[in-house]
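This part of the workshop introduces the protein records we will be handling. Backbone structure tokens are a discrete shorthand for how the chain folds in space. Once this layout is familiar, the rest of the handout is easier to follow. The record below serves as our worked example for the rest of this section.
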Amino acid sequence: MDLLPTPATKAGRDGLQALLAKPRSAVIGLDFDGTLSPIVEDPEQARAHPDAVPALAILAPKVASVAVITGRPAEVAVRHGGFAGTPGLEHLVVLGHYGAERWDAATNTVTAPPPHPGVAAVRAELPGLLDRVGAGHGTWIEEKGRAVAVHTRRADDPQAVFEALRGPLADLATRHGLIVEPGRLVLELRPPGMDKGVALLDHVRATGAESVLYAGDDLGDLPAYAAVDKLRSDGVPGLLVCSGSTEVTELAERADVVVDGPEGVVALLRALAAHMA
């Protein structure tokens, strides 16, 4: 049996205790890339850790809901995660594009509003902007449907290119009514108004959950951390988990529990399931 870690904070210990005491009133929120899936150079090659779906299939029937909350399109996260048609995951939901899209395992359908027109405008201008700032070589544009992202991981100096692009991409986004979401050597241009915190709060309140766990690894997960803090202040115990990396330290500094990447997240999910009635 995997051992449960001891949270570093009292709030985290209270959150874990609440999760274990009444699991059927708990929501488990999980980021995808870097949390359930190892970070890879090409995001199209990202796949869930091989033990992630088996662990979720054991845990999910014991809790109120498991929600994968991701910046990816919901359909892409479902495909790369291998979530569809898996026994035990009938009530899993994937909140894609920071909650703008929702996929339900029960119906295998995605619901979403119309796309923001600024995304198409930004997509058209991006190649020229990258050439003008001398960042064309080694960068890579990821098409995300309702958003577009620029990756610098393949550049000779990924961090320097990342920093050089922050200002120009912020200006471009602002002109078209979008915002820039920084991540692990990636800058995503997307519509405002939705983030992982909004998505998590809405889902927890919709399910009437009495406790919540959220696990993430990147800057885009900070709003979800803030949502858990908000829920705690409202009397809903919560546990903050960081899928640790050397690229981003902000989450580790705020987390109740830090685990070793997706493998550590999977071990935690298995341990939770083993300790739940």
About this structure: The first strand starts at residue 26 and ends at 30. The CA atoms of residues 84 and 149 lie 26 Å apart. The chain has a mean pLDDT of 93. The two ends are 14 Å apart (CA to CA).
